[in-house]
Design a protein that fits this description.
The protein has about 130 residues and is mainly alpha-helical. It has one domain. About 70% of the residues lie in helices and about 0% in strands. It is built from 8 helices and no strands. α5 packs parallel to α8. The longest helix is centred in the middle third of the chain and has 20 residues. The termini are far apart.
Length: about 130
């Protein structure tokens, strides 16, 4: 038991970076996100960092980036539960939404604002829709 706890504690953000980014880039491909959209969602300022990460050169990513990716994974999961047909789920991301949270914007507009809080509220909205 103690050994398992030590292994669990040994997992760091460095260990999660590669798998998290691979998951993110797979979702980005399905959603057909531009580089600018990917950078905004990840909170990146440097295009070279994005290219480096896409090439698998991940030495370290911040907790902020992991948090952002976590929200994207949750959004992806929720939208695919709500809309199990992939094309409809992917289209929802770019479809104007009349819900007060979106005020006519798309989910992607909200998610690419650059604010991690916008990723959070989109995730919460979808989780609430799931019930």
């Amino acid at each position: 038991m103690a050994e398992a706890l030590q292994r669990e504690r040994a997992i760091s953000t460095n260990d999660l970076g590669g798998p998290a980014l691979r998951g993110f880039f797979n979702i980005a491909k399905q959603w057909e996100l531009s580089e600018a959209e990917q950078m905004a969602i990840l909170g990146l300022k440097s295009r070279s960092t994005l290219h480096s990460w896409k090439a698998g050169n991940v030495s370290k990513i911040s907790r902020d980036t992991l948090e952002r990716i976590s929200y994207v994974l949750g959004i992806f999961k929720s939208i695919n539960i709500l809309l199990p047909i992939r094309e409809r789920a992917n289209a929802w991301m770019r479809k104007p939404n009349k819900a007060p949270l979106f005020n006519g914007q798309t989910a992607l507009d909200r998610m690419t604002s650059g604010n991690v809080s916008d990723l959070y509220v989109v995730r919460q909205y979808l989780d609430a829709q799931r019930g």
